[in-house]
Amino acid sequence: MKIECHIIQNFPPHCLNRDDTNSPKDCEFGGVRRARISSQCFKRAVRDAFERHQSFSEDMKAVRTKRIVDQVSEILVEKGRAAEEAQRAVVTLLANVALKTENKDGSERTQYLLFLPKRKLQELAGIVLENWDVLVAAAAAQDAANDASSDGEEGKPSSKGKPKGKAKSKGETNGLPKEARSAAEKLLRDATQTPEIALFGRMIADNPDWNVEAACQVAQSLSTHRVSMEFDFFTAVDDLKKDSDSGSDMMGTVQFNSACFYRYAVVDHEALVENLGGSEQRDLATATVKAFLRAFVHARPTGKQNSMAAHTLPSTILLVVRDAGEPLSLANAFVQPVTVRRAEENLEAASASRLLEHYGQLARMYPGGVVGSLLCTLHQHPEVPSEVSQVDTVEALIDKASKLLDSQTGEA
User: Are residues 47 and 78 in the same domain?
Assistant: First the structure.
């Protein structure tokens, strides 16, 4: 079972998602330049919406961070351990499960972002406490070995006249009990009952067994029409400047555009159930789907919002539930850019009509596999495809789609 979310959303002047030159992201589609908002940007906005809506309890939340050492060390300090010893003990434990760290600005950080259940931080601190003496001793021994290695080159006599062996990497130890190492690996590998990881997946290159295949796919959002970039010239005045001094004290430019976007995402329900922990987690999977749909509708990137306040919501939402076949993006509805030729025409409404027309055409060309199609829109569309049922509110739309999904998975 798959559930697709198709959205039409118009944004006023904005710079919601910038590239490396600080300009709004764009691309070419259908032979013309389009505004674009990356899938990563909207995924982050969805996770922010989860937090705003308090979609999940604290023990089901996830955290993506390089600062796991700092976080676990703070827990240990709260339990009465010395800060420096706590940090070295955590580094040593992570090294035993092949997670290397490096010191940046006085903080030990993993080499890449780790996506893990937030509850695992407390559990990891528990493993450190259970093996405190071994980890602290191993860390001290490693520090001594690192200090000795600075006396001379590897394999040559040190300043004390004794040959020096190969120094271990930071945090490496053979003293940690196998059971503790296995417990730490199992703890960090387990991502069940964590909706964010189940939806968006996880990849850890050094530990591929920890990878989680995403149950959700989010498309790059594209404008339904041709877009031209514009520049805003701004100035600022010093409040304490004397009245006799004319002119501004700062000036510059920032790029922006205004665009109506087609947004698309799809969730594989069975993959979601598996990622969450198996068939016994179907209720959680249903709750996760509802939370995701609500968050995806309300997700808004934060780029330049303080200066542009592009706070708009979608005007058209189409949900499609499939029990067979491949998911289908409706982006090709806009290969020919939508245009507005008369003052009474509405770009949002025209884009939504194009979307529904294309969906009807695909349904006729590729029949079967669709359990239900549900629409919520601000606009009046005279030719809504017969396959589509309309509802009045977004909450009713999400609730009806979730019940339809449940009925097809035997959970109604």
Answer: no
What's the CA gap between 363 and 15, in Å, rounded?
36
Do 228 and 266 lie in one domain? The reply is: yes
Is the same domain home to 281 and 376? yes
Amino acid at 18: R
Provide the 8-state DSSP code for 13: E
CA nearest neighbour of 261 among 218, 214, 221, 216: 221
Q: Are residues 103 and 85 in the same domain?
A: yes
User: 132-164 burial, b if ≥16 CB within 10 A, otherwise e?
Assistant: eebbbebbeebeeeeebbeeeeeeeeeeeeeeb
pLDDT digits (tens, 9 = 90+) for 10-53: 999 999 999 988 899 999 999 999 999 999 999 999 999 999 99
* Residue 91 placed within a domain: yes
Residue 122 tokens read as 């407390």
Residue 107, burial from CB neighbour count under 10 angstroms (0-12, 13-18, 19+): middle
d(CA 69, CA 106): 12
pTM: 0.89
**Length, in residues, of the chain:** 412
Instruction: State the residue range of the domain holding 296.
Output: 2-56+212-236+259-408
384 membership: H or E segment, kind and range: none
**Residue 203 counted as domain residue:** no
Shared domain check, 52 and 81: no
